[in-house]
Amino acid sequence: MHIYIYILVLCFGFCYPIHAQTATAPFNNEMSAYFVVNQSTAQKQDKAEIEIKENPPQIQKIKNAKKTTTTIGQKQTNETSGKSYERRGIVIAKNRIRINSQIDATVSKLHVAEGEQFKKNDLLMEFDCSIERAALEEARLSHEVVKFEYTEKKREAEEMPIPSETLELLKLKTDLALTKLNHLREHIKHCRLFSPFAGRALKILVQEYETADALTPVMEIIDDQALHFRTFLPWSWLKWLSVGDAVEVEVMNKNYLAELAELSEEVDPLDQSIRAILKFQSQDGLMIGMNGVVKFKDIEYETNQEIKQ
């Protein structure tokens, strides 16, 4: 029994060193590789630092860097020399109105055709007012009658006593007849339709011998002598925009100088924009309905840049 125990002890003492050496071998290999890699990396870093010190890289300053951002309906460009903003718009006529006849009458004659130009106070249309003219003549005669009666009563009152109420009543009748006469005279003026400004007949809504309604438009006219440009701007631009600012408008690949003529006093609740009207300095080649782009400059930004410089 003791012999077997002695043999086991000898075997254990002989095998344990071999097992321990085998188990620690991978760990020793990994540590050796780690130190080798770190040593190689450190050598490379030292070499790179030496090269940087000997040959420093050239640094170039970027001047006048530009940053451009584009949003729907707006193009904004930021530069070190200033800011510019672009908005799309449309060429419009300053005055575009529909004219009513203001009386119920038949059109007797048209003096302009669609697309035809006219001057201010030119005759555009005439109506058949024969009934109104007859009523005017009747009112004129009625006024003459009551006026004559009142004059005679006043002359008689100088010779014989006449109640003052009688004279007062005749005077009221005379004034009433005169008021009716003046009313018909004003009514007759609407039998001839004159242009309120120089422009062009855009649409003729009634033809000769047709009956016009007093509340229905008979003609649409525009003032094409002074074309304008309409656009909508963010209300926040009001801090650096003002009426009278000079701007540039590009229409059909051609640039036009314009002036900011009008800024709306009301902000649209949906998109928080305001309406702006620009007046062209020259309108050669422009037509109503053309699309274009207006270019604004941030005056406040440029002023601040000048102060900083």
Task: Write a structural description.
- The chain has 309 residues and is α+β, with helices and mostly antiparallel strands.
- It folds into 3 domains: 1-57; 67-94 and 226-308, Efflux pump adaptor protein, beta barrel domain (Elongation Factor Tu (Ef-tu), domain 3); 96-222, RNA polymerase II/Efflux pump adaptor protein, barrel-sandwich hybrid domain (OB fold (Dihydrolipoamide Acetyltransferase, E2P), Beta Barrel).
- It is 39% helix and 32% strand.
- It has helices at residues 2-54, 130-159, 164-189, 299-308, and strands at 67-71, 74-79, 82-93, 96-100, 105-110, 117-118, 123-128, 192-194, 199-204, 211-212, 217-222, 227-234, 246-251, 254-263, 273-280, 291-297.
- The strands form 3 sheets. A 6-stranded antiparallel barrel has the order 3-12-15-14-13-16. Strands 4-11-9-6 form a 4-stranded antiparallel sheet, with no helix packed on it.
- Helix 2 (130-159) runs antiparallel to helix 3.
- Residues 16-38, 56-82 and 299-309 have low confidence and may be disordered.
Characteristics of this structure?
6-stranded antiparallel beta barrel; alpha+beta; 4-stranded antiparallel sheet; Elongation Factor Tu (Ef-tu), domain 3; disordered C terminus; OB fold (Dihydrolipoamide Acetyltransferase, E2P); 309 residues
